[in-house]
Amino acid sequence: MASFDFRISYGTSALPGWEASRVLRGITHLYYYSLLARNENYMRRLNEAYHINERLIPEDLTKKLNIAERDQLFIEVRSLSSSLEGTGSTDNDEAAIHASDAMDVIKRLRDEFASKNIPDNEKEQKVLEDQEVRQNLIDPIEKAPLDVELKTNLLAAIILAYVSLLADSIESFEFALKREAA
């Protein structure tokens, strides 16, 4: 089993609900997009579910894609004050490592953006140009045999997940992978 701890601090005395849900969604999306990018069966099922659901990404992806319990991400949130702190865990060590790699990009880009007021469209461009993001997420999805519109939506969601975790309202972003013996 692999897990990761995260702590995202904000410059406020209390954490606005919108910020909390946006960050949790960003972490979750990067985990699952990393999983999808490396699993042809889940990609195929997503494409089928997309067409069955009248060209909309289904709300209940875990069920629709028949994601095995060992591949699912479970999140426990411990703090919602001026920081969001918690743990994510999965039985899929490989997916956890890939999600951790995706989060390392955020830490690297946050360091690069430090003390600069960078607009979101420039952050988006930096994410799109990042070699690691391209290699691990964008390229596999671009090459996947998916509906063109679905592919466009997935790529936009990946970029949005990154940009949301690079928000100016976040003062610090910490993410640490832990691997436990089975």
How would you describe this protein?
The protein is of the alpha+beta class. It has seven helices and four strands. The chain has one domain. Helix content is 55%, strand content 19%. The protein has a four-stranded antiparallel sheet, with helices on one face. Strand 2 (74-80) and strand 3 form a beta hairpin. The protein is globular.
Structural class: alpha+beta
Low-confidence stretches: none
Number of strands: 4
Question: Tell me about the biggest sheet?
Answer: 4 strands, antiparallel
Q: How many structural units, i.e. domains?
A: 1
Provide mean pLDDT, rounded. 91
- Report the β-strand fraction as a percent range: 15-25%
Helix-strand pattern, N to C?
A: EHHHEEHHHHE
Strand line-up of the largest beta sheet: 2-3-1-4
Provide the gyration radius in Å.
16 Å
> What's the number of helices?
7
What gross morphology would you assign? globular
Measured as a percent range, the helix fraction is: 40-55%
